[in-house]
Design a protein that fits this description.
The chain has about 150 residues and is of the alpha/beta class. It has four helices and seven strands; from the N terminus they run βαβββαβαβαβ. Strands 5-2-1-6-7 form a five-stranded parallel sheet, with helices on both faces. It has a two-stranded antiparallel ribbon with strand order 3-4. Helix 1 links the parallel strand 1 and strand 2. Keywords: Cytoplasm.
Length: about 150
């Protein structure tokens, strides 16, 4: 197992997954990549009157990526990463899509993630992002329970 991907969102579940990811990376001498996905709404919408409006989220996107980068740096400070090769990915889009794309593009051997994160609607056993990643992942997914 050479490459491990760990999605993080700041939730307790992702904290536990990050800790397990570090543990596995040390055990197998693996590279560890943390991915943080920032959801930004579509650029085209409509009003209740049916009028279409285009929104420019470029400036907001830049600020959110800067904030996301600070978040990831802060998050990683709390982990014992000594002896582990670490990379960070901060991307925008639908979380499950971006996690799956990163896993495939990066040819990861394993995804380590919490069973649910900060979603508005929490499922009883598994969060919706986690479920979609499990369903469509190009590699094994290790789910860390809280």
């Amino acid at each position: 197992m050479k490459k491990i991907l760990v999605p993080i969102d700041g939730s307790a579940a992702s904290q536990k997954a990050a800790e397990k990811g570090v543990e596995l990376a040390k055990l197998f001498n693996s590279e560890l990549t943390f991915i943080h996905v920032i959801y930004i709404p579509d650029t085209v919408g409509h009003t209740k009157y049916g009028i279409y409006m285009e929104y420019d989220f470029k400036e907001m996107k830049e600020k959110m990526i800067a904030t996301g980068t600070k978040f990831v740096d802060s998050f990683l400070e709390g982990l014992d990463l000594n002896g582990v090769a670490v990379e960070k990915l901060i991307v925008t889009g639908q979380p499950y899509e971006e996690i799956l794309a990163a896993a495939e593009d990066g040819k990861f051997d394993l995804i380590v993630m919490g069973r649910r994160g900060f979603s508005k609607v929490k499922r009883f056993f598994v969060g919706s992002v986690t479920q979609r990643v499990i369903s469509d992942s190009p590699c094994p997914v290790f789910i860390v329970l809280e």
